Amino acid sequence: MESWKDNRQVFWILGLPGTFWLLCFFLLPLGIIWLMSFGEKTSITEVAVTGTLVNYLRAFDPVYLQILWKSIWVSVLATALCLLVAYPVAFAICFARPVWKPLLLLLVILPFWINLLIRTYALIAVFRTNGFVNAGLGFVYDLLGLPALFGPFQPLQLLYNDFAVIAGLVYVYMPFMVLPLYATIERLDRSYLEASLDLGASQSRTFLSVTLPLTMPGIVSGIILVFIPCLGSFLTPDLLGGANAVMIGNVIERQFKAANDWPFGAALSFLLMYATFFALAVRSAMSGRKSGMEL
Amino acid sequence: MTTEAAHGLPPARRLSLERLISAEQGPLDYGSRLWLKALIGLVFVALYAPILALIAFSFNDSKRNVVWQGFTTKYYLVAWENQALIEAMVNSLAIALMCTLFATVIGGATALLLWRFRFPFKAAYEGFMALPIVIPEICMGVALLVFFARTGRYMGSFESGPIAWWNSLFTVWPLNLASITIAHIAFSFPFVAVVVRARMAGFNRELDEASRDLGASEWQTFRHVILPFMRPGLIAGALLAFTLSLDDFVITFFTSGPETVTFPVKVYSLVRRGVSPDINAASTVLIVITLVATVLAMRLQRSERN
User: B243 and A113: CB-CB below 8 Å?
Assistant: First the structure.
């Protein structure tokens, strides 16, 4: 690798376009809303930057605090469910026959390339009152002859509640959890597991005291990779949660569109961003201690 | 390993090897555990059933779309005749193509910069380049919304002169899509840079030195030594940028105007009104386009590996 001083002309030619683009169309816009978050609305379109902390204080108003809190626990729950399902899946892929591995991995990755909006829309058709789940349940209900006992099948309300949002988040972000888990389990030295079993530990003991600690880096990576997009999600709670399941992303959207309170929206955006950076810092702090966390 | 070979080992070890060899299902043979197989099958069904149902029901001859009523392609025709939907699709494709072009050039240059040079604060610069990948999309979306609203208002305040002329340029298609395209380039070129840089990690730097030693200029070395090696990475990066741009909803939602609607934004407004088979048809078309681009990218990466 050469020093930038050896060939300044090439260095600038290669470096300027990317730097320019990110400065102008990324850092500058973020800077503007950062300043705006310390401002006040003076008219419908005007915002004066006064250095006030009102917008940040308002975020701790019980109404918004409740939404923030809800966003966090919905994300935590979705992340936990992802982990619970993804771990055995990643494990099974790692221990599958070599012929099957690439296909199984491809099946995990493929949904990444399908539009998030379309995947969410697909879930609406599954969950809505006359959707596939209710149609299936109704079919079973009729088959069991229950209408004679309890009257006709009442479809379940599966959409527009927290359940739908959590199910949607798990559905959409599952691949983010499987991949880092797969990467660490694949690197796991299987002779440790063998040794543990040889020395008389049971399968569950081996899993809890050998496999789980050794794959912790992948678990942490997966948790962060799922938790961050869940916390900042806007589309999934919007389409699946409706008016009942509001998360911080939806509040931010409302401030910039319907409510037209840009300073407050800007403050909320930055709170969300600080939370993201905090999660990333936790991850890098943990990767500093433990090796093998590239994903 | 044979059982004879195991006799030289300490008793505990031997026991385990014999167990491994004799038992049909070894203790580490998790892959053949029935419950794991069942679980993985169930997860894949849960992942794919909604999407497959969406595709299948785009061919279903029923408006209510729950029970299969027979095969039809009429909803593709309905979607095709939906002027607004087609316009949105054309916009999306135009944005994706422009974005791909710029993102590939900028991302490729950034990758080469990081691959080739040592410079002060390089780690911080790399972190900065990764920022659009890690920050929540909605934050980037609202920031760009404010940015374009402010610059648009400032530029719009000129009623005559060169800036007014410049503004008038951006009312013409496809330049009226500029703000969405700019936003897409900003979030996709860092991904291109990551892909291209991964490719460059396998480059033998001695080739570069040899080329220079033999008297090739900077440009000749780039054109005939580095670029051919980079090409698969560039193509993969370009296809990634294309699909990222085509698929983006959140950032586009905040940077699009009433005149500049992209396909996902249009589908979003339709979806809010409920499920209907022509949305299924349109979605299926988008899935096919992105999957074809992805399969192409994978093919190219595989063929260059062999």
Answer: yes
